[in-house]
User: What shape does this take?
Amino acid sequence: MRLVFLGPPGSGKGTQARMVGEKLGLPQISTGDILREAIARKTDLGEKAKPYMDVGELVLDEVVLPVVEKRIMEKDCMKGFILDGFPRTLGQAIGLEEVLQRLGCAVDAVIFIDVDDTVVVRRLSRRRVCPKCNAMYNLDTDPPKQEGLCDRCQVGLQLRSDDKPETIEARLLVYRKNTLPLVEYYESRGILKRIAGGGEIGKVFDSILGELSEARSS
Ligand code: AP5
Assistant: This one.
């Protein structure tokens, strides 16, 4: 299956894409993770992305699209993949459609995880990441065993640089303006699956699997 996970920042796209990917044996492709890694490595891609990511803006379509195009051509994506946080603009959605058409396939389902802004702000301000292994924690729902330290590396956990309150606000505005229109775009194609993302992680996961099994049998 070729899946897209769509939703506001903090809706749980990454958490759920990882779990669904493991369950279905599909690679999770997170453009956010790819870009953060490029920034950490100080590559050309990282230099192009950093000024936008620092302020919660979207990295340019012409920068992101070729990255995704190259990634989905890799061998592990032959039988399918989960795109987490891509597409995020109409331009990216059209670009993806063109790339997949050339490969003789299409997106099978779009999982739209919907949550309220208050939930987003709470979740993101409570998220902590390990700067060494990138493990993710949440002080409310998934805290580390020892306060402030990664369970695996014992390194001090950090707030993601774009999880500061003012940047969360900017990301929500950008989401509403650029990404929310994709809900209608995919709805009109009959492949959008709406998921209420405010519940517990396990319940959201079960809803997604339910929608996907329906999509597979139809
Ligand atoms: P990206 O990394 O994709 O960030 P985002 O979309 O803002 O999403 P987040 O990673 O913040 O949240 P999420 O929905 O994955 O939730 P998560 O599972 O982590 O992008 C970052 C930046 O990169 C963008 O702002 C942009 O600049 C750039 N970028 C990326 N892709 C781009 C593109 N295609 N085009 C242009 N620019 C691009 O969960 C969040 C927290 O909540 C965690 O702590 C988690 O444990 C917790 N949680 C999750 N689910 C639940 C639940 N059900 N209940 C309680 N807690 C939960």
Observations:
- The two ends are 13 Å apart (CA to CA).
